[in-house]
Amino acid sequence: MSGRLPVRKTYKLFIGGAFPRSESGRSYEAAGRNVARASRKDARDAVRAARDAFPKWASATAYNRGQVLYRLAEMMEARAGDLAAVCSGRDEVEAAIDRVVWYAGWADKLPQVLGGANPVAGPYFNFTVPEPTGVVAIVAPDEPALLGLVSRLAPGIVGGNAVVAVASETHPVAAIELAEAIATSDLPGGVVNVLTGLRAELAPVLAAHMDVNAIDLSGADGDTAELERLAAGNVKRVVHGVVDGQSPWEIQAFLELKTVWHPVGA
Amino acid sequence: MSDVEKSERTAVPAPFQWEYAPAPEARDAVSLRERYGLFIGGEHVEPRSGSFFPTISPSTEEQLAEVAQAGAEDVDLAVAAARAAFEDGWSSLAPCGRAKYLFRIARILQERARELAVAESLDGGKPIKESRDVDVPLAAAHFFYYAGWADKLEYAFPNRTPRPLGVAAQIIPWNFPLLMLAWKIAPALACGNTVVLKPAETTPLTALIFTDICRQAELPPGVVNIVTGDGSTGAHMVGHPGVDKVAFTGSTDVGKAIQRKLAGSGTKLTLELGGKAANIVFDDCALDQAVEGIVNGIYFNQGHVCCAGSRLLVQESIAEPLVAKLKRRLETLRLGDPLDKNTDIGAINSKAQLEKIRALVASGEEEGAEIYQPPCVLPEKGYWFAPTVFTNVAQSYRIAQEEIFGPVLSVMTFRTPEEALEKANNTPYGLSAGIWTEKGSRILWMAQRLRAGVVWANTFNRFDPASPFGGYKESGFGREGGRHGLEAYLRFE
């Protein structure tokens, strides 16, 4: 026996900007580590934290949201080594960081590209602006563990939504390492919440939750019919996004369009 | 201030009663057949189901015609016809060709405007001045607008390659039969899809006249198919494996059932569902204009409007004079024959809807709200409901939470803009909202915070094909109108 024994990290959930253990006191083993196994109660707590965080984040200026996302990229760059250790490696980390930077730049361009002024036939000023839809649940893909989560998370939050993400069941550690970058990135607590645990246990709770406005099933394995059925309870927006790609249309899937009319007259 | 002084300040003189001679629109602009079949593959065909049901005029209860009750086999045939038309040429037709067909349809709608307006008012009960000045011109405008998109789709969505979806099943409601048909068919065809459309059970006539417009436009057979029937026909369409897209406008309950049914199927879905719009009036508004806007917001089309301003939120300091003015204005509304050009309030669309309105109004009275209806004589035959205002309404009352879809306004008050917002956003719906104030910065502040897809400031119930329309929350997803309305009928490579 020689050399120093390393201090192991205890992996926890990320809810409301804090890192609690699951209220259920459970964990499960994934990739050789014990990871918190979130309960339905944890999922509900995460939704509440997201709902509380939503108004402030949604009303932040686009310039500010863009900067906060860029700050997240800075934090990820600083942790690139740690992140590389929990995903497929350095290339994936770099792609994930670049993706965050790419989406950061969209924050203050969305209304110009996705909205517009409408030439109605009458004396009205009429314009359409994109707005966040509210609380978004994300079922993250298993592969690539880090880049897949980032690819769904970034378009979710850049438009002003708050997110509850169910991490990959088989590779949850990347999500928690990412959460630690998020926690230090100026993103207000609760804008991103990360649950680790069993997808089959958590996804249906979020799909059926009446205070979740949209659900991204990009990482839901196999048959998503039951989740989609549950989503109909409050007419949730169901998103099947691109797992490894980037596009402003991925952002639009999480947005509503609001049209405002006003008469024009002297 | 004493009560006497208060009542003097808010007293509004009784309206002068104008006597108008009847000014009925001639019915002979429309010649109806006794019985209508289905429109499948460019042909009028007898339903395989063999069954028909009557469509009646809600203002007189007379039977106007018999229409087919399409069964599962009929829906199969319609979907097959639409599929064949999609594959045999419509999807590969030069886009400018699609555009020209749509321009033709727009023109024929304008040329046959009188006939369509009369048919719409006969079958649906809405005042002729609305069908003539709103429904028909807007329907034509929708075809005109989307005609222009047909050959410009690649400019609508940068960096994406648009492709049609295939066969669209479209189910429309009874409140704006022809206009909803235009909202559904025009963008679908512009994007290269073919359609099977089901008009509402109580208002099929203008859609059946539209089949003749398709013939006049020489639209290729099967591009547009019209099947009539009730909810069971709609259910066959929604569950049909040959359908690539479902577009539904109607109640939130049915919308949820459709979303459940399509779960996991990959069928693209857009929903335009119910609403319970707040019309918010601040103390600095132009009061008379606001009263006109409130009346337009809730009594237009007898309140059969999903985005109707059915909850009036008034700033407390002007509640008394505003309600007094509103009641006085209500006394001047003319209820009666929908075909009379002076009529403001027509007939309730159906007996079932009248019963629903009555039940909800009864619940309002039971829960403790104060009801006001202007003196007005209801015709002996037909389905009628007097314009109604409820004051003393609490947030929790059914009349403040549930969609009534009738000429019934619930009045509540607020003190601060924050309170108005809180109350306005306090329903599961999020379709539309109104703001009345002279203060521009307040309009924009409110408009940003209202959770609704359409916000009308110092106006209400305006529509235009260039303007996206659709809801937040349980009012549905997807937009109709404008560039955004194209997306519902496209997939991207």
TrEMBL record, chain A:
Q: Which UniProt keywords apply?
A: Oxidoreductase
Molecular function terms in GO for this entry? oxidoreductase activity
Which InterPro entries does the UniProt entry name for this protein?
Answer: Ald_DH/histidinol_DH, Ald_DH_N, Aldehyde_DH_dom
Extract the Pfam families matched here.
Aldedh
This protein's source sits in the domain of life called Bacteria
Ranges of residues in domain Aldehyde dehydrogenase? 34-240
Q: What is this protein called?
A: Aldehyde dehydrogenase family
Specify the species: Gaiella occulta
TrEMBL record, chain B:
The entry's family comment says: Belongs to the aldehyde dehydrogenase family.
UniProt entry tagged with the keyword Translocase: no
Residue positions of the active site: 272
Highest taxon, organism lineage: Bacteria
Q: Which PROSITE patterns match?
A: ALDEHYDE_DEHYDR_GLU
Where in this chain does the record put each Aldehyde dehydrogenase domain? 46-491
Note the Gene3D superfamilies from the entry: Aldehyde Dehydrogenase, Chain A, domain 1, Aldehyde Dehydrogenase, Chain A, domain 2
The record's keywords, sorted A to Z, are:
Oxidoreductase
Q: What is this protein called?
A: NAD-dependent aldehyde dehydrogenase
What's a Gene Ontology MF term here?
oxidoreductase activity, acting on the aldehyde or oxo group of donors, NAD or NADP as acceptor
* SUPFAM superfamilies xref list: ALDH-like (SSF53720)
- Which InterPro entries would you find in this protein's record? Ald_DH/histidinol_DH (IPR016161), Ald_DH_C (IPR016163), Ald_DH_CS_GLU (IPR029510), Ald_DH_N (IPR016162), Aldehyde_DH_dom (IPR015590)
| One Pfam family it belongs to | Aldedh
